[in-house]
Amino acid sequence: MTDSHWLVNGFVLFGAPYMATDIYAMYLSHYNNQKVKGHCEDNSLQTVKAFLKKEWMLVLHHLALLLIFLPITLFYRRGLGDFFIGCLFTTEFSTPFISIGKILIQLGLDDSMIHRINGIVTLLSFFMCRILVFPFMYWMYGRQYGIPLHRVAFHLPLQCNVGNLVILAPQIYWFILLLRKAHRLYLRQRLKIE
């Protein structure tokens, strides 16, 4: 819990260009999808506005990580909290499965067994690594200092709890969206069988 490793800041620095590149990649994906549909012809301000309107939460999430949490991690934590930073890195474990799902859909394999298996892995990894990681961090902190789980939040500085809540809230929202999509796909499969 109190251990520190120099590589943590290296990973955080690696995350900065990743977040910036990911925003750009999301925009390019939006732009190309709109271009294929015939809704836009060039990279205009209107296309950027449409992208920001559609993906505002993801863009805000990436910008917050890049502009708020990155500086806090690098400059204000005084070498503390490597365990928690490591736990937050595990949130990215589900990202490849989300990307694989999108690729399978683009390849027309959204009715395939591999897409269903990937969907289950996506849901499980997302839930475990993006939602359950927060109670796990609080439990580990409580275990370290002999505090029951239900009292840990009262022993942490307010900014730690608020920061965790700000990170957790969109994760819960996106998990609900994933569950809805899984439910729609399940219903679609059931209708095909009947």
Please supply descriptive tags for the structure shown above.
9 helices, 80% helix, 0% strand, 194 residues, mainly alpha, globular
Structure write-up:
The structure is a single chain. This protein is 80% helix and 0% strand. It has 194 residues and is mostly helical. Helix 1 packs antiparallel against helix 3 (56-76), helix 5 runs antiparallel to helix 6 (113-131) and helix 7 packs across helix 8 (149-155). The longest helix has 36 residues, at 158-193. The radius of gyration is 20 Å and the shape is globular. 9% of the residues are buried.
Q: Quick check: average pLDDT?
A: 89
Uncertain ranges: none
What spatial form do the alpha-carbon principal axes imply? globular
The H/E string reads HHHHHHHHH
Please, what is the oligomeric state?
single chain
As a whole number of angstroms, the C-alpha radius of gyration is: 20 Å
Share of residues in strands: under 5%
Please tally the helical runs, counting DSSP H or I stretches of 4 or more residues: 9
Structure class? mainly alpha
